[in-house]
């Protein structure tokens, strides 16, 4: 009997608060999902989450703000949990084989020395290892989120914090600016 009352109360609240705003919930799932493949799953799970916790809504607050916050948090958490369970696909230690091991004609985090002058290489080598690795990943074309994943996996980054990566990139570039001219030659000390 108690379960029926709880279910009836939750259903009534869900119909009053959530059903009139289903389009908003879907739009928020679309906006905050990291991958378009996750949108429908996130939408379904968010609605189930709203039903489960509908009684936690405080009527003194705006229902639209509450819906926005709950949806955003749930989507971020669901996507993060999903991605934790995916196999790690960024293997930076792979060797690209075309006609031979030295036939690679684009920058990777490991072959950068063949693309830069001695002055630039000396400046890069003077950076601390964590700064150098982060910078080389960015110069090889990795996105910030990918750099976070790679450096965290390698143990260079203790927590997955994109702000730490941004800071390291800024400090690495600042150090290079102190050591190099705009044309890549070493600055002469005066």
Q: How would you describe what is shown here?
A:
By secondary structure, the protein is mainly alpha-helical. Helix content is 58%, strand content 0%. It has eight helices and no strands. The chain is elongated. It starts with a helix and ends in an 11-residue tail after the last helix.
Tell me the β content: under 5%
Shape: elongated
Rounded mean pLDDT score: 82
> What is the number of domains?
2
Write the layout of secondary structure elements.
Elements: H1 2-17, H2 22-32, H3 39-52, H4 63-84, H5 118-125, H6 129-139, H7 144-154, H8 162-179
Helix pairs in contact: 2-3, 2-4, 3-4, 6-8
Q: In summary, what is this structure?
A:
With 190 residues, this protein is an all-alpha fold. It has helices spanning 2-17, 22-32, 39-52, 63-84, 118-125, 129-139, 144-154, 162-179. The longest helix is centred in the middle third of the chain and has 22 residues, at 63-84.
List the defining traits of the structure above.
190 residues, 8 helices
